[in-house]
Design goal:
The protein is globular and about 55 Å long. The chain is mostly helical. It has 8 helices and no strands. The longest helix is centred in the N-terminal third of the chain and has 23 residues.
């Protein structure tokens, strides 16, 4: 028997199955947290926003209807939380936490150094993207959302989401290919 779909799990949770929520949370916690962290850069703020997102999921469970994929709905909530955060404090540039870069110990020192340089260049390129492009890229890569789902999550049209993702990918590839 296959894994339960996210949408079925949320419906089960809505109907009182707490274990269904645990499964959803476990399934999405890593990607969602990384998305939020890369959106605000500060771990303490990311943790607070991350918890607020899950609280909104819990609060909205009775109103949720499977009109869209659960991940689209979840990242729409995350998008709105980040937008609210940015509006209160002004937009900030996102950077990857270079401390998360762990080189493979089996590689030689030159390969490790090159890997760290590549990651640093990628982090700088990601941080330099306009916020809308960065968000489209992270929703696609971290959350695995399609262009249509990115458009829905960010409240824009599919062409704008596609354009943002295309520009982000082109800029990131250009930086990585220059190295």
């Amino acid at each position: 028997m296959g894994e339960a779909a996210d949408e079925d799990l949320l419906l089960a949770y809505r109907d009182g199955d707490a274990a269904a929520f645990e499964t959803l949370y476990t399934r999405h916690r890593g990607r969602l947290y990384r998305f939020v962290l890369r959106g605000v850069k500060v771990r303490a703020v990311a943790e607070e926003l991350y918890q607020e997102i899950w609280m909104k999921v819990i609060e909205a469970r009775d109103r949720w209807a499977p009109r869209a994929k659960f991940t689209t709905w979840l990242y729409t909530i995350a998008h709105h939380q980040l937008i609210d955060h940015w509006r209160k404090r002004g937009l900030t540039v996102v950077a990857l936490d270079e401390g998360e870069a762990v080189a493979d110990a089996s590689q030689d020192p030159a390969a490790q150094a090159q890997g760290r340089q590549d990651l640093a260049r990628f982090a700088a390129a990601l941080a330099a993207l306009p916020p809308a492009q960065r968000e489209a890229f992270l929703l696609h890569e971290e959350a695995g959302l399609s262009v249509a789902e990115i458009a829905e999550a960010t409240g824009t049209n599919a062409e704008a989401a596609k354009s943002r993702l295309r520009y982000a990918m082109a800029k990131l590839k250009a930086v990585l290919n220059d190295g």
